[in-house]
């Protein structure tokens, strides 16, 4: 599917690393591996705000026979060195450490969140708010803060992020009274539960969220089932957005009719429409190391979000090589569009995505695209 307005609006060259939270801490040159996967919300002044994941990486991670990783510790950023013969560096985003009975990895970059204010249509940058950057501030974030998702509920902005450390790979909650300045609330989901999206509105007086717990073991559906075993988009409820209970009924599950949902997870926080809760999510088709990421959509029942009212197997968005052609020299993964934000703009939605784990893509999608 093609759309009239579909472009990259922010990328690695737009980040000023002299204003990065890491600036002045490391005796090594860094660069922006990617500026991508932006959360999105509308501010009180009518502008949009993206919350861009900046993956800041070492220019030369391998030296002296070691590969190096950046780590935050008690207000400082440090380098850790791993002997090359102990690691697998085939994926440019991370390296696997050999020798354990389970997978252990470290990242080739450390991520922090940069708020970028945009014009109301999302197409022009108004300001990059480095003074409001969200960076590690606790031990459970020592390897970075990733993939912000922003919802506005009852006049208050709630941001979920993924915090990375050896302690846990958890979901953390931030809150704001103005949409730009955020404070850390706490851990809200524990180890390896990713892509938490808080609904933009309550259901039955409760906060609702989509979640995606990960694991290495899944139990099979019966032969002939329309569903495929594996990661799915689950649901949870909360009285206060801090304490979450898994919902009994499953959410959006991988469908056996398509390999494009061999892996899947939430994308944009569900927003309420006349037909129910609209949610955009990603499905992955296996290919090489990373796979092919595409964006899909579903509408959930307004009173019972475990029920899917309408959905489609064909993708809404696919990766666009034409958009990233000017950034060819910076490409390190392909076939990836990862949609992470949505805002109402009258007859259409402004949709924000990460393109190729590299840059921020804005697409104007008419509301008619989701009609029955």
UniProtKB/TrEMBL annotation:
Name this polypeptide is given: Putative GH43/DUF377 family glycosyl hydrolase
Species annotation: Sphingomonas xinjiangensis
UniProt keyword Glycosyltransferase, yes or no: yes
A Pfam family: Glyco_hydro_130
GO molecular function (one): glycosyltransferase activity
Alphabetical keyword list: Glycosyltransferase, Hydrolase, Transferase
Family to which this protein belongs: Belongs to the glycosyl hydrolase 130 family.
